[in-house]
Amino acid sequence: MAEVLVPKTLAELLPNINNEEKRITAGCTDVIVGLRSGRITYKPMIDINEIEEIKIIYEDDDNVYIGSNVPLNKVIHNELIQKNFSVLKKAIESIGSLQIRNRATIGGNIQNGSPSGDCILALTVLRAKVALRSLSGRRQVDIKDFIKGPGRTDLRNDEFIEYIAIPKIFLKYQGYFEKVGLRNAMVISIASMAVVYKLENNLVKDINIAYGAVAPKVLQLTEVENFLKEKELNRENLTAAGELISRAVSPIDDVRASAEYRREVCKNLILRLLKQAP
Amino acid sequence: MKMEIKFKINGEMRTAKVNDSTRLLDLIREDLGLTGTKEGCGEGECGACTVIVDGATVASCLTYAYQIDGKEIFTIEGKNSLRDLEIIEEAYVDAGAVQCGYCIPGMVMSTKVLLDNNLKPTREEIRKALEGNFCRCTGYVKIVDAVELACERLREKRCK
User: Fold this and answer.
1) Residue A169 contacts by C-beta under 8 Å, 6 or more apart in sequence?
2) Which parts of chain A are beta strand (E)?
3) Nearest residue of A to residue B51 by CA position?
4) What mean pLDDT comes out for the span B34-61?
5) Is A97–B44 a contact, with Cβ atoms under 8 angstroms apart?
6) Is the N or the C terminus of chain B less surrounded, counting Cβ atoms within 10 Å?
7) pTM flag (> 0.90)
């Protein structure tokens, strides 16, 4: 019969985690839709919403930390994030609507492991780490390794996502995020792109590029990154990069768009960096 | 197993017994009989079920009832306890922003939270603030007019 545990502290939560038999939930914005549509099966829930210890954003010398329980809207309005990680702010702004972002949490968004997960895309180019906590301790995993595929993550049976760590090496980088979809609010992407980069004398010194919704998981484009290094972000270079991108992505046909259209969108999205150049 | 929860709704303390699958929307409409809040899509897409929980808008169809234990909720029926709600409602009527009316309770709640933080929003900011609320009748122009009218009246009221 119906059952839900609402722990108030980590100490109450940790001994109860059993991901095979119970579902850890927070905002429940995806869980409710999933359960009602029959897309996911019922499991007794552990609702971690009330745990304040993981509802904070803080920093040390090396990283900015976002507690997994922080609602998406709080991430967007946090000064540390706004000032330093515009790519994450823009990515999260594109998720759901205000009503959803007030409840959905960053930990929940990551645990869902959606291939179009916009937040995951931004965290990938920011080389974020996911901190996983269990009774036996804590381990950190790169976000790109944590997401194994659509809806599949590296979460072990006794673990939950405690926080996300974003390294401060990207503080001085410029960022760009864009999602192409059918409506502003609530859009499930046709394709999305997140980029962070550093320019010196107009030349790209470092660049991280990732695409969402065009492969089974977030796609990092190392080949394109290497191609753009030590080059200017001009039309010629970005057009050539777009060709490489259109060969690297493996989009699908579905109700929202054809694979061919998605490929074209991916190719053209990189040209947005033209507007960003000084 | 029913959970007992305690909360404040439209200024009144209440308790209720809920299942783990009872949505806030079901609690509001079925148990409390406050049918001003509407169910549209039931998936958080349309915003018809928008209510205010601890000062922020949420989709009540995507919130479990047990999650509002200890919290303060306002619905469209809250005009006696929620400052300015009636002025916003009147502005919607006077601007001709209401056709079938199904989306309006949600629209008004989103408008209320916007105006709590900004009494001089641009039309673009208004559209942004209401992007989680669908209207299938009006084409939104008159709704944005209504929000501007509400701002105007609230600014006048504040000056007095």
Assistant:
1) A127
2) 4-5, 23-25, 45-47, 57-59, 63-67, 129-134, 137-142, 147-149, 152-153, 160-167, 174-180, 191-200, 203-212, 219-220
3) A99
4) 97
5) yes
6) C
7) yes
